[in-house]
Write the structure tokens for this entry.
Amino acid sequence: MYTAVLVRYGEISLKGKNRGDFEKCLLNNIRQALSGLPSCRIEHTFGRIFVKFDGDAEEVVERLTRVFGIVSLSPVIETPLDIGAFREKALYLLRNTPGRTFKVETRRSNKGFPYQSPEVNRLVGGYLLANTGQPVDVHNPDRVIHIEIRDEAAYLYSQVIPGPGGLPVGITGRGVLLISGGLDSPVAGWLGLKRGLKISGLHFYSFPFTSERSKEKVIDLCRVLARYGGSLRLIIAPFTAIQKAIRANCPEELYVTIMRRMMFRIAEKVAEREGALALLTGESLGQVASQTLESIAVINKVVSLPVLRPLISWDKTEIMQLARKIGTYDISIQPYEDCCTLFVPRHPATKPRLDKVEEAEGKLNVEELIKDCLDNLEVMEITP
């Protein structure tokens, strides 16, 4: 019975002169999300997007609920501009929507339609009451039958399904996500996507100390992110030689600090190649030794790009809850170690001093190690 999905967007409408760019980006992302469903047609009117289709609404709705920038959506029945048609379709919706009480709520943007909104509510509501005997409750109904009267047709619906909100992916630029196989970085990537950031993933891989399966785990996590943000580029950086050099030449308590500084140096070079304006990490303040304020300050010294940390104030329980919601949790907890969990010292420095770190790095051929890593990157395109 449903013939279209009504898409609502909110924050985009606040963008003033840039509104057209935001809407264009959202429409493009909707088209990408619906690719492979050839019957879908997108119609855009002021403040509303209608996705019309032939067939079942379920797949269309499922895909649209993963498109950032969408606040809510509703499967709708399109009808002619006729009270009799309104009554017929409203009765169908009422009988197929669970609940005991109801109300009718009309929005009339077509001022040429001969009945005003309160009249439509009364005419349709009275018909439903007479044909079902179900009580009306205008204050706290179990069901609301919505009628939108527009210039070309009317649209009736009873469901309002939440969307992910946020901004259309790509509208705020590109960032490089330092992604491991753990819980935090994929969630940080999802939050970056929600704020309109197109991301490229960067994973540091320490073969043979980490298995091929650990890399597959990261690919699987990127596939989940691609469901929300469209296809993304994943860059695999060989990190074994760098970790061996750190272990052979640097004080044990500084392994993690120096390792992270090397990662950030490489990430900034990758960002230049990707046209990215920021780095994105899953760091949470105080969670581990490298995430104390002192450690973060020392690690940040090696890059000039801004480093976005969406999870900086989150605790582990909050991160786990969102990971479950977005579908990364079950992948992240698989027991395949990544390079961040290897070579961990017994007593890592929680308050590293910059002068001591730079002195230790003086024993490394930093530029050569970085060049060798960048010359051997593996790049793959990850699709949903």
In short: The mean pLDDT is 93. The longest helix spans residues 255-274. The longest strand covers residues 72-79.
